[in-house]
Automatic annotation (TrEMBL):
Any Pfam family matching the protein: Mob1_phocein
Keyword Transferase annotated: yes
GO molecular function: kinase activity
InterPro entries: MOB_kinase_act_fam, MOB_kinase_act_sf
Protein name: MOB1A kinase
Residues reported to bind Zn(2+): 57, 62, 139, 144
Gene3D superfamilies assigned to the protein according to its UniProt record, in alphabetical order: MOB kinase activator
Signal peptide segment: none
Kinase keyword on record: yes
Native species: Crypturellus soui
Keyword vocabulary terms for this entry: Kinase, Metal-binding, Transferase, Zinc
Length: 194
C-alpha cells in the first residue's frame, strides 16, 4: 500500500542518521498522509517503549500522571470523560493509548484507502494525538529514566524521542508551551544535530 511505501521511505531515511532530513515531507507527497503515517509509527514506538517499563509505573509509584514536580496531566477525552479527571499515570496512559488507538482505527479520521480524503479536522486531531503522546515521553523521562537505563534502552528512547521532536517541530504540530517539561533535553538534542 501507499502508506507502507511512505513508512519504508521514512525507515530508509532514518537509517541515514540524519533525523532532520528523515522528517521532511517527501517530494510530491500529501502532507496529511505523511503526518498520518508518522503518527501511527510514533504511537507504536511509544506504546512499545512504555510497555517495557509498565512494571515500574504503577498506581503506587505514580499516583498522578506527571512530568516532574511542575507538570501534572488530567485526563479527558471529550466523549466519555468530558471534565478532566486526576488519575494515576498507568490509568492515564491506558486511557490515552486506548483513545489514540480508537482515533487511528476510525476510517473517517485516518483513511487507509488511497484516494479517500482526510477530514477537515484531521490536522487538529493529529495535533491532539501528538501532544498527548509527548506526555508519555515526558513521564518516562521524568519518572522512569533510571529504569530505562537499567534496561539499557536509553539509546532507543533518545532516538525515538529525537525523531518525534524533529517531526513535530518540522510541521509545527505541538505548541512550544506543551514541550516545556522536556525543554532542556529538546535543546540538547537539537544542538547536537546542527
Amino acid at each position: 500500500s501507499h502508506q507502507y511505501e511512505l513508512l519504508k521511505h521514512a525507515e530508509a531515511t532514518l537509517g541515514s542518521g540524519n533525523l532532520r532530513q528523515a522528517v521532511m515531507l517527501p517530494e510530491g507527497e500529501d502532507l496529511n498522509e505523511w503526518i498520518a503515517v508518522n503518527t501511527v509509527d510514533f504511537f507504536n514506538q511509544i506504546n512499545m517503549l512504555y510497555g517495557t517499563i509498565t512494571e515500574f509505573c504503577t498506581e503506587a509509584s505514580c499516583p498522578v500522571m506527571s512530568a516532574g514536580p511542575r507538570y501534572e496531566y488530567h485526563w479527558a477525552d471529550g466523549t466519555n470523560i468530558k471534565k478532566p479527571i486526576k488519575c494515576s499515570a498507568p490509568k492515564y496512559i491506558d486511557y490515552l493509548m486506548t483513545w489514540v488507538q480508537d482515533q487511528l482505527d476510525d476510517e473517517t479520521l485516518f483513511p487507509s484507502k488511497i484516494g479517500v480524503p482526510f477530514p477537515k479536522n484531521f490536522m487538529s486531531v493529529a495535533k491532539t494525538i501528538l501532544k498527548r503522546l509527548f506526555r508519555v515521553y515526558a513521564h518516562i523521562y521524568h519518572q522512569h529514566f533510571d529504569s530505562v537505563m537499567r534496561l539499557q534502552e536509553e539509546a532507543h528512547l533518545n532516538t525515538s524521542f529525537k525523531h518525534f521532536i524533529f517531526f513535530v517541530q518540522e510541521f509545527n504540530l505541538i505548541d512550544r508551551r506543551e514541550l516545556a517539561p522536556l525543554q532542556e533535553l529538546i535543546e540538547k538534542l537539537g544542538s547536537k544535530d546542527r
